[in-house]
Design a protein that fits this description.
mainly alpha; 13 helices; 70% helix; two-stranded antiparallel ribbon
Length: 344
């Protein structure tokens, strides 16, 4: 008779210490969720679940973009500013045609796809430039991403100041807003459009990671770039493609985020990069590269979003919210480091 391989971890071969290390971050997050539910039992409701999924959907798209860069063993602090750039760009071109104080009053109503594609191309160009500095010029990923973050923020703020005197860009085209704020009913349950976009993004990135040569090369480069180079993998080309994919996801995420929130300023997207990378690490994507899964990324985003939404819902002091997020990030990185040390 054929044996069925268990999908559960073989705990008999692991000590309690290693089990606790592997699951510690999830245990802490579960405790936090239980505390939030204890503070306000109304947190568990279909309305809140829908809100969490809507907010998490754009974060999933962004995390899927940066996760490839993290698997390469790099980082991207420019994610948040790229999101803001995409948001301001699309918002300035997709205001309600009937609004009297539009940024570009003489601009005819554009098809939604044109500004969104423009935002995607814009983010991709900056992302591939970022990747060029890392892959070709061998600039340290942290420094390259920090520099790109400042470049994007500076240019975005100049554009924002010139076109609208640094005033929020709002009153968007209702068709554009409906892209992110709309929903459909399925069996009496309201399914936001954003969730559908996130599912599509998950399937596409999963296919790239698991069914293409690019995905295999990405893990090989992140695991051991020298070995990957010796085996004939074009490291520069593969890294640039991963950075372009990240830029595409940032452009899509930024456009959907401004459609969801209804307005854009140059502050939109601030700290999104920290949430995205923290979600990746919580989901098991190693900051040292070469390790990660799409399921882990999605799980990490959902857990992080549940905690963030729950803290706000429970009316926890905003400063304490920063403290809790910081502890989660530190714990996740510490666990990742300990796993790496144990493997060595």
């Amino acid at each position: 008779m054929r044996k069925v391989k268990s999908i559960l971890p073989n705990w008999q071969d692991k000590s309690w210490k290693s089990i606790l290390l592997e699951w510690s971050i999830y245990i802490v997050l579960l405790i936090l969720v239980l505390v939030i539910i204890y503070i306000d039992p109304k947190f568990v409701s279909l309305k809140n679940v829908s809100s969490i999924l809507s907010q998490a959907s754009t974060r999933i798209i962004l995390a899927l973009g940066v996760s490839g860069i993290v698997v390469l063993g790099c980082t991207d602090l420019s994610l948040g500013r790229s999101v803001g750039m995409a948001a301001i760009f699309t918002a300035s071109l997709l205001q309600d045609p009937g609004y009297g104080s539009r940024v570009f009053p003489n601009l005819p109503e554009l098809p939604l796809i044109i500004p969104i594609l423009g935002a995607i191309i814009l983010c991709s160009l900056f992302s591939v430039l970022h990747g060029f500095f890392v892959a070709k010029l061998k600039v340290a990923p942290f420094i390259a991403s920090l520099g790109m973050q400042l470049v994007i923020y500076g240019l975005m703020s100049i554009y924002f100041d010139i076109v609208n005197d640094s005033a929020p860009i709002g009153v968007l085209n209702p068709k554009f807003s409906k892209l992110a704020q709309g929903a459909f009913e399925l069996g009496g349950v309201r399914i936001p459009f954003l969730v559908c976009y996130a599912v599509i993004a998950i399937l596409v990135i999963w296919f790239i990671w698991n069914k293409t040569v690019l995905g295999r090369n990405m893990f090989a480069i992140g695991g051991n770039s020298e070995a990957a180079n010796v085996s004939g993998i074009n490291i520069i080309r593969n890294m640039l493609i991963i950075y372009i994919i990240a830029g595409v996801m940032y452009g899509i995420g930024g456009a959907l985020e401004v459609a969801r929130t209804g307005s854009a300023t140059n502050a939109l997207g601030a700290s999104y990069e920290l949430d995205a990378m923290a979600s990746c690490v919580v989901g098991g994507v190693s900051m040292r590269g070469g390790v990660g899964s799409i399921g882990g990324v999605v799980t990490g985003v959902l857990l992080f979003q549940i905690i963030s939404y729950g803290l706000v819902f429970a009316q926890v002091n905003p400063y304490l919210q920063y403290f809790v997020k910081g502890v989660i990030i530190l714990l996740a990185v510490a666990v990742d480091t300990q796993k790496y040390i144990k493997k060595k």
